[in-house]
Design brief:
By secondary structure, the protein is mainly beta. Helices cover about 0% and strands about 45% of the residues.
């Protein structure tokens, strides 16, 4: 692990006190993937319902290079990561993996910091992936960025690198993808590559490893790209981390297994959602299932704590929305579904149209589904399928929204937009 000079680093106690403030963000902030609550639910006042490439666009800022990390927002500043080709004599030799800060009011670039350099010979990825896909996390004092097998870093809000580390060397399949989460002064993320299958906890103040959990995976295809979630069950915290063929609940303090459920799936992407005491997990490729799990068990609870599971139009990539006892989801091929969250019974299923990778958000009773072509269909979060509005930017996107009071931030393949 590389550390910078002590003058850049605050004391551990002060650092951690500031890191903890990530949990006290107000509704106008969107500090991590899927927002303050990590489930895609926005509690701000009404978001825009109508826009186009020219209508209700406050600004659009060109973004260099490639990157499908979603924007995050804190105190009027947006943060993204990107990968920019470093050319020498017109020959691409590497990628610069950057963190970028943008003024949310004006769209002005505030700073860009090169965090890692990736040699071109190690840059093979899936055609829909990027070299900067995990979403940053921003607190009151620092921004944390993750580039999968290339490493993790902590920066000040001025763009100074505090520390960076490679917690585990491993060979990825299709590049990086899963985003870390922050809890109680620690970062948690998965390593599900070609051979290694781990969950890692590192200290936010130092970048040092706290514990490493070995999945002991027997999956034939071990690679996955999931983002974990922290839930509270009977007064105790559980780190939920799905992967190929298995989802596991881990004690976030000790790194010890609490329970696990086995299934059939790989290349898992959607983030789990916890709602009214039950956990909802998608199982990945080839034919995804949706599992509803009671998280109160111990050990292998595959046969005892799975409330229900269903197959058919389950998303491979977008995460779920849970609201008022209902599951809302969009399949990668554009089929929208509403389920009874307790039973798995289908309430409605409709073709929305398009192909989807971005995870939806819920605001003021409306769900926003954004396709890979940049078309957003807004529907009511209700027992009947009802389209509220349809909007198009005409630019491709795989990134999820960041939102603030009356504002949506959308990252496309070439620009960052402020819609209001």
């Amino acid at each position: 692990m590389q550390r910078l000079s002590p003058s850049i680093i605050t004391t551990s106690s002060t650092f951690l006190a500031l890191v903890f403030l990530v949990s006290s963000t107000h509704a106008a902030d969107w500090p991590s993937f899927r927002g303050p609550s990590g489930d895609g639910i926005s509690t701000v006042n009404k978001l825009p319902l109508k826009w186009s490439a020219t209508a209700n666009v406050a600004w659009r800022t060109p973004v260099k290079g490639q990157g499908w990390s979603s924007p995050v927002l804190r105190n009027g500043v947006l943060y993204i990561t990107n990968a920019v080709a470093d050319n020498t004599d017109a020959v691409q030799t590497s990628y610069q993996l950057n963190t970028v800060a943008i003024d949310a009011q004006s769209g002005k670039m505030l700073w860009t910091t090169v965090v890692f350099t990736q040699p071109i010979d190690s840059a093979r990825i899936h055609s829909k992936n990027s070299h900067a896909s995990p979403t940053p996390i921003v607190t009151a004092s620092h921004v944390f960025v993750h580039f999968g097998h290339l490493g993790t870093a902590c920066l000040t809000l001025k763009g100074e690198v505090v520390w960076k580390t490679l917690a585990s060397k491993y060979s990825p399949v299709h590049g990086n993808g899963g985003t870390p989460i922050l809890h109680d002064g620690k970062l948690y993320f998965s390593v599900d590559g070609k051979v290694k299958t781990l969950v890692i906890c590192i200290d936010c103040a130092t970048g040092d490893s706290v514990w490493v959990f070995d999945r002991q995976s027997a999956a034939s295809r071990k690679f996955s790209f999931s983002t974990p979630v922290i839930i509270e069950v009977a007064g105790k915290m559980q780190l939920i981390s799905p992967a190929s063929d298995i989802v596991q609940a881990i004690d976030p303090q000790s790194g010890k297994l609490i329970w696990q459920v086995k299934y059939d799936g790989y290349s898992l992407i959607p983030k789990p959602v916890y709602h009214q005491g039950l956990l909802y997990v998608c199982t990945g490729y080839d034919k995804p299932w949706l599992y509803c799990i009671d998280p109160t068990g111990k050990g292998d609870v595959t046969d005892s704590h799975v409330r229900w599971n269903i197959q058919g139009q389950i998303p491979h990539t977008p995460s779920l929305i849970l609201d008022d006892g209902k599951v809302f989801m969009i399949s990668d091929r554009g089929i929208g579904t509403c389920l009874n969250a307790l039973t798995g019974e289908t309430i409605w299923q409709e073709r929305v149209g398009g192909n989807y990778s971005a995870s939806p958000i819920l605001n003021n009773g409306n769900i926003y589904f954004t396709s890979e072509l940049g078309d957003t269909t807004i529907i009511k979060a209700a027992d009947q399928y009802q389209v509220v509005a349809k909007n198009s930017l005409g630019q491709a996107t795989l990134a999820s929204f960041a939102v603030s009071e009356g504002v949506i931030y959308i990252r496309t393949d070439s620009h960052l937009y402020r819609i209001e």
